[in-house]
Amino acid sequence: GSCYVNSRHHQCIDVLAPGFQVSARSFDGIIESIEYMDSNHPFMKGVQWHPESLRDSLSIALGRAFIKSIYH
Predict the structure, then answer these.
(1) What is the pTM of this model?
(2) Using alpha carbons only, how large is the chain's radius of gyration in Å?
(3) Residue 25 Ramachandran class (φ > 0 left, ψ -120 to 50 alpha, else beta)
(4) How far apart are CA 71 and CA 39, in angstroms?
């Protein structure tokens, strides 16, 4: 699938640390989202865009999932 992201990069990820995988790239190949693949860390995600500035369903769901992971 695809979605709109509000990327404004002057830096970006080049090499991932062990245990992470790329979960989204922009059309030009820049890594936009990563996830840590360890079940002991239920919410270990990173995004390069600014979902807090957007009001689309993906950005809202990402924010809710983050809050839920804190208070779960």
Answers:
(1) 0.78
(2) 13
(3) beta
(4) 18
